[in-house]
Design a protein that fits this description.
Layout: E1 10-11, E2 27-32, E3 44-45, H1 49-56, E4 67-69, E5 76-78, E6 106-111, E7 117-119, E8 122-124, H2 135-144, H3 165-170, E9 173-176, E10 219-222, E11 225-228, H4 234-246, H5 262-274, H6 288-295, E12 303-305, H7 306-315, H8 327-339, H9 354-366, H10 380-390, E13 393-395
Parallel strand pairs: 1-5, 2-6, 2-9, 3-7, 4-6, 12-13
Antiparallel strand pairs: 4-5, 7-8, 10-11
Helix pairs in contact: 4-5, 8-10
Amino acid sequence: MPELWLPGAEIHDLGDHAPTDQQYPPKAIAHITWDRNASAAEPQDWCSYEDLVSYFTGSGAGDAPHLVWDPFSGRTAQLFPADSRSKSLLSPGPSPTRTNRAGRVVIQIEAVFFPYCRHQGAVYPRLVDTPCAGWDRIHAWIASWGVPDTWPMGRPVDFSGRRDEQVWERSGGWYAHAHVPYNDHTDPGSWPEFTGTGSPGTPPSRPAPPAEGTPARYQVSINGLAYGYGAHGYQVTAVGRALVARGYGGHYHSGPGPNWTDADTENYSDYQRSLGYTGGAADGVPGEDSLLRLLGYLPGPRTVSLAHLLAAAHADPPAEQDHRTYGSEVAIVQQALADEGLLEQRWVRGSYGTLTIAAYAAWQRRCGYSGSAADGLPGRDSLQRLGAAGGFEVTS
């Protein structure tokens, strides 16, 4: 049997152990403490590991996780054994599962972190920008409990939420707090790579640089889609159009289009250098960070959920500028609207704002709808018609 307590952890056993619901597959839940609100313009001092351990062993015991993890030093406190539920998730009456117990194990980790925290004079926008010290030890221990190295709802790359009850009940693996049904938090925003797939917070190693004057000719996979020489698909077109919109399209003689050519590589290299990358990091093949900065979202498979799109259409307009709910799916729809001449290319950014509502209303009118039936909120028929035109599938 694996170790109930993480080797090397500081043990603060809260007692009150309770079994998990064994009919569900094993899970790990990623959280950040997010104990202060900061921004790039106004960073704030990091709250100490000791303060958070004191909170979770005192007045915050009713919300305590299994592990409290300091990503700067690697110190870790454990409050419950692995085979017990912990208490960091909401589990309201309407939920079909007891979320804190919905797995053979449901191991919860709170990283002591908030965006734009200041630690020893340096500011850290994302968890993966920290040293992620001790992550390899935590990951190995959780893997020993049978939690697979997969994110059933996608590795978190921003603070958008995605929740699917069926996936939650059927799939083991790692879940962001933002993925847990009947919860409303959107953390952690990012999380380090699994041990063995690259150093925490950094992209996988790249091939040796090509001979001078020869563009890089290899591919990478990001969020399940290919980028680099020879890659094909809508995501290639999206990158090319975004590069042109940013002023980095000088190597195109035609296009951009769905086939990645040397021109795409050279344009992307120019863009990477504009971000301050040098050497092999500016070879013109995207990494996750630069792609996210270019597009504002990470493209995914060409499937759009009607429920997700409606959620975005209600959540994004009243939120702050460029708020993204299900950004990759919204961007697929936006691109289809742009291809129909109903939305300017520069607004294909993954946020279902007022311009997208107006563009979708125009599409509904083109489909023959009028009045309240052309309000910019997708219906199944109009979305399926747009999917047929734009090359994506519609799910419920």
